[in-house]
């Protein structure tokens, strides 16, 4: 049986009523190339991660461009009273980080892609630790999901969420009002990996292509040249 690609009318309306006014109030918008996001079909939105606030701001962007974002969220959130019910009803997928259970989140993501959902995926796995806030070396989950499902990967970069809520801080810096910039790239070409076994060097190379596409969009937003080699927290 085909599962829904959007929440029930009640939960979708509740989320929109809360998120959209708050987003418009907190940040100004500089949104670019939103028309590059396909309106239908299973889709992986691969984005950089700067702040705990960017999933909400990106969700607003994606919703306004015709897609309900299915977010991968920490499994602990699903155990919080009311919040757990809310994130589950909004179609979020639980992720048990640092655990073999994380495989379940990829399986659930593959099922949602088959249903025609748009998955918001952070290949870095966490907020970047790069001192200049460029994207880090990515983890291979998004690449594996793309190669096994055949779903398109759309690279999306954003800038400004870290000014509203810097990583590690709990209190937003509301004033002066910040600008949230988003740029959408063309689908990442992973055709050269089709037919290759989806593991090891193949996954790492495909992941590097995805991260390079995100970084190129971020360089456009920032008007700066990105570093030639991405920051690698494991090999620093």
Automatic annotation (TrEMBL):
Cellular component annotations (GO), alphabetically ordered: plasma membrane
SMART domains, sorted: PlsC (SM00563)
Pfam families in the record: Acyltransferase
InterPro entries associated with the record: Plipid/glycerol_acylTrfase
CDD domains recorded: LPLAT_AGPAT-like (cd07989)
Keywords: Acyltransferase, Transferase
Entry's Gene Ontology BP terms: phosphatidic acid biosynthetic process
Domain Phospholipid/glycerol acyltransferase, chain residue ranges per copy: 43-161
GO molecular function, one term: 1-acylglycerol-3-phosphate O-acyltransferase activity
Superkingdom as given in the UniProt entry: Bacteria
Protein's UniProt name: 1-acyl-sn-glycerol-3-phosphate acyltransferases
Organism annotation: Nonomuraea maritima
């Amino acid at each position: 049986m085909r599962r829904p690609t959007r929440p029930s009318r009640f939960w979708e309306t509740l989320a929109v009523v809360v998120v959209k006014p708050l987003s418009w109030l907190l940040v100004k918008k500089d949104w670019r190339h939103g028309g590059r996001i396909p309106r239908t079909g299973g889709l992986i939105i691969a984005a950089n991660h700067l702040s705990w606030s960017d999933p909400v701001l990106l969700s607003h962007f994606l919703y306004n461009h015709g897609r309900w974002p299915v977010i991968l969220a920490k499994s602990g959130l699903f155990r919080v009273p009311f919040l757990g019910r809310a994130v589950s009803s909004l179609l979020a997928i639980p992720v048990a980080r640092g655990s073999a259970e994380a495989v379940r989140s990829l399986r659930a993501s593959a099922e949602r892609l088959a249903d025609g959902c748009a998955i918001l995926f952070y290949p870095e796995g966490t907020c970047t630790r790069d001192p200049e806030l460029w994207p880090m070396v990515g983890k291979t989950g998004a690449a594996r999901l793309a190669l096994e499902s055949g779903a398109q990967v759309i690279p999306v970069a954003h800038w400004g969420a870290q000014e509203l809520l810097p990583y590690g801080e709990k209190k937003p810096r509301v004033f002066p009002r910040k600008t949230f910039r988003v740029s959408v790239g063309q689908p990442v070409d992973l055709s050269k990996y089709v037919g290759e076994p989806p593991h090891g060097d193949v996954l790492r190379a495909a992941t590097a292509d995805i991260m390079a596409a995100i970084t190129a969009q971020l360089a456009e937003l920032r008007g700066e040249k990105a570093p030639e080699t991405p920051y690698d927290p494991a090999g620093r």
